[in-house]
Each structure stands twice: as structure tokens, then as C-alpha cells.
Amino acid sequence: MLEVQTPVLNEYPTSEPSIENFVIENAEKCRYLRTSPESSLKKLVASRIGDIFEVGPVFRKGEESPIHLNEFTMLEWYRLGYDHKKLIRDVELLVDYCGGRFEFRQITFMELFVEHVGLNPHSTSNAELSRAIVRFGLKLNDTEKEDRDYLLTCLYVLGVEPNIKAYGAFFLTDFPKELRAYARLSDDKYCSAQRFELIINGVEVANGYHEVIDPIEQQHCFEIDNETRLRRGLTATKIDKGWIAALKKGMPACAGVAVGLERLQMVLDEKINI
Questions:
Q1: What is the domain extent for residue 54?
Q2: Domain containing 238 — which CATH number?
Q3: Is 274 among the domain residues?
Q4: pLDDT for the residue 189
Q5: CB–CB of 151/145 below 8 Å?
Q6: Region 187-203: what's the mean pLDDT?
Q7: Partner of 183 for a Cys bridge, out of 6, 153, 195, 265, CB 3.0 to 4.6 A?
Q8: Which residue blocks in the chain are alpha helix, DSSP H?
Q9: Is the residue at 80 inside a domain?
Q10: Count of structural domains within the chain
Q11: What are the pLDDT digits (tens) for 142-155?
């Protein structure tokens, strides 16, 4: 596997609605401090460079809490010919190498959601999800009631997250398609997302995908991001044309994962504040 170094200043911002870039402005143009090296790394993968990884700083505006930093260190890597299930083993080996001694297990998003919220996250109507949120004491406006991504995320935060510390170290898998980000969709009953998160003692440490490699599908993902942003009163972002162009050249099948190194160190040291 080859180590690479990619730009920290990017031409395009992230389109993900839940993440905000720091913006560097001058008289000629804007540049954006990267929220992850994903775009640059995928362009390299599309050039047939092989398996790659990068360790470096990333920046996310507005992320300050006991488990969030505005600037943190990300380890991100891509494996050709892997899917998300095979990549999970990579992550297990990394944590073990860093001194973590855990008995990992895998739990589906639906298993946790049904247990702690009492609803099927894949098939329950928006109206019923909204009523469940209201029962948790949160008020919703009409726009939020139609934002399925928002509804599922709210119920996860309100109903599931307070309980997951008791599960120790586990991989959360088979996300609802509305929470796919840039992961492929399975051909199962619910078209669930081929995505995982590593959660240790209640803290998300890693996020991995069986990557979208079709340029039309990736374009659709970006468009959905912008539709969500506009619905939430945010500004639509410029779509990363270089990312799409790289996929058009022929992206090899691969899986990728990002690990927040400060968070990993935090959970290994059994700290509660990053």
C-alpha cells in the first residue's frame, strides 16, 4: 500500500449537508480547507495507482464538543477489489495494532433502531418517524417532517445513541439508503447502504464504504446532497467536476475507510474528552 499526500486546500467544498468547510477567500477565488481527503484520494485511485492511504489534517467548521475538534487528524485508505465487509477486517487489525483489545461484533442499523426506537428505519413512513420524534420531546416543522435523512438521524441521536456505550466495540452496518452518503446500495429487500461505522464505547471512530464508482450514480448522490441542503436552508455547493471526471475514466471497484486518530486515541486511553 502506497502512502500519499494530497492538497489541504481544495477547489470544491463538501456537498454533505451535515458538514461545513472553512473558506479561504482572496480577490480571485475561494478555496476550501478539506473536510476529508476523499476527493483527491479517489482521483488517485481512478488513475490506477493501486491501494493508497493518507494521514493528515482535516478541518470542519462548527465541530466543537467533547468528541469533536475543528481540526483533527484523519487516516483514510482505499483497497482495490475490497467491499465494505472485507475492509472491516482491516479496521479490526488497525485497532488491535494500536493496543485495543476488543471483541468486535457487527450489528445492523435496523437491529439497534428496532430495539431502542421500536420502528423499522427502512420502511416506516415519515409521518410515523415524525410522531416518534415528537414523543421524544422535539418539535418539527413541515419541512423537517419530509426530510427522511433528518428524521432517521434525529431518532438515532435521541433513541439509539444514549444506549450504545453498553455495546462496547461494534461495527454498525446496513444503513438505510437515505444515510448512504457515497456508499453503494445493496440488492437486498431494503436497498440498504453498504456502509459501516466502528463505534467503541459509544464513540464513532471509523466510517467506511463500498465505494460508488459509477459517475452517474455519484452525480446523483451530489444532487441529492444539494436538494437536502436547499431544503434545510443551506446554500447548494458546486459539484466536484474533477471527482466525476475521474470516475468517467474508469474507477476500479474498491472500498475506503476514514479513521479519526484523536478519537481512536481517546477511546483507547478511556478518556471522555478529546
A1: 2-268
A2: 3.30.930.10
A3: no
A4: 92
A5: yes
A6: 96
A7: 195
A8: 38-46, 84-97, 109-116, 126-135, 142-145, 148-155, 215-231, 241-250, 261-268
A9: yes
A10: 1
A11: 999 999 999 999 99
Phi first, then psi, for residue 65 (nearest 5°) are -165, 180
At 93-148, the pLDDT tens digits run 999 999 998 999 999 999 999 999 999 999 999 999 999 999 999 999 999 999 99
Could you tell me if 104 and 230 are in contact, meaning their C-beta atoms sit under 8 angstroms apart? no
Q: What is the average per-residue pLDDT within 164-169?
A: 95
82 belongs to a structural domain:
yes
H or E stretch including 74? strand 71-80
d(CA 200, CA 204): 7
pLDDT band at 64 (very low <50, low <70, confident <90, very high): confident
Closest CA to 58 of 256, 261, 243, 255: 261
104 with 171: CB under 8 angstroms?
yes
Q: Please, are residues 71 and 59 in contact by the beta-carbon 8 Å criterion?
A: yes
234 found inside a domain: yes
Spatial distance between the Cα atoms of 214 and 58, rounded to a whole number of angstroms: 26
Torsion of CA 133, 134, 139, 141, to 10 degrees: 70
Predicted local distance difference test score (pLDDT) of residue 236: 94
CB 232 within 8 A of CB 226: no
pLDDT per residue as tens digits for the range 3-55: 999 999 999 999 999 999 999 988 778 899 999 999 999 999 999 999 999 99
